[in-house]
Structures are given as C-alpha cells and as structure tokens.
Amino acid sequence: MIKQSGNLHENKRIAILSSHNGSGFETIQKACEEKVLNAQVVLVISNNTNAKVLEKASNKNIPNFIINANRYPDENLDEKITNLMKEFKVDYIFLSGYMKKIEKNLVTTFENRIINSHPALLPKFGGAGMFGSNVHKAVIEAKEKESGCTIHFVNENYDEGEFILQKKFTLNENETVESLENRIKDLESSAIVEAFKKLK
To answer: 12-110: CATH homologous superfamily?
Structure first.
C-alpha cells in the first residue's frame, strides 16, 4: 500500500531536483501540459550551474534555483532546499538525474513524497555508483535475462525506499549498454507518468 503524508493538493504541485538535462522533468511537464496528469511543476532546483534543466525550466516560466556549496558555502543546503519546497507548497519531489544524496531534513519533511526512477529492477543493481550506463553495463555483465525500471519513494539510503511500481522487459540476445539504455529511457517515460497517476 502506498502511504502518503501531509495535506496534498488536488492539483499536485511537483518540484524537480536535477543535476543535468532533466529528461524526467520534460516527461512530467509534458504530461501536465497535456492534462494526462492533474499536476503542475512549480519548482526546479539543481546543484549544477550548467545544468540544461535550468534553461528548460526558464523557457516554461518555472521558478528555478541553483543550490550548491560554491554558491552558499556557509549555509545548510539541506535546510535551504527543504525551505524552498515548503515556500512553493510542494506536494511531491521528483529526482530527475539528481546526483546528490538526499539529506535527512528533506527526507523527514517530505516522507513518502520524494520519488526516484531507477533504471533497473531493484533491489538488484542499486546503491552508490549505480546510475546511468554503470547500471546497464552491470546488468549485461551479469547475464540477466530481464531489466526495466523501478519507480520508488526515496529514503536516506540509496535505492531502498518503498516501490511504487516496476516495469520490465526481456533483454535481446545482442543487447548492448547503449541499446539497453535507450530501451529503458523509453520505458521510464511511461512508468514515471503511471506512477504519478497512482499517487493521490
């Protein structure tokens, strides 16, 4: 059973944490614009000054912020991010390729409301260092017959939060890291939207 806490809005208010391109942001934003999701992206935060997701958010007139130790050397970044989420009355937070560990304050404040998409079938191929092509390389080297993606809630440990859903497919005989990565990116797009539909 999916547990949630807090007084959530009927029109879900979603924030994005992203370090690079923010393909998950684009997926969610498109679903919101097309009314597939009864939601809106209200905030984008990145730890990377050069993240393309910031420009994408600006183009959609979505408030966006860079929060990292270079910019705020004497501040508690966890608290700063948490306070911004509260200020924007965020219901759910989606991690779109966010390369920083989520800290205690944010996890506690938004318990069962921080969501991640992992490009493998957890609990296999999760944990520190398991992201992007590293995951697909490990899957192929382990001679797995299946792979897919796991949409899950985030807690203080990498890739250990409660599952919302999993999608899987059978690997092709001649599967490469690149082909597997592309197949999973396509799968993740539909899985992310389906997961948000399940959240009340």
So the answer is: Formyl transferase, N-terminal domain (3.40.50.170)
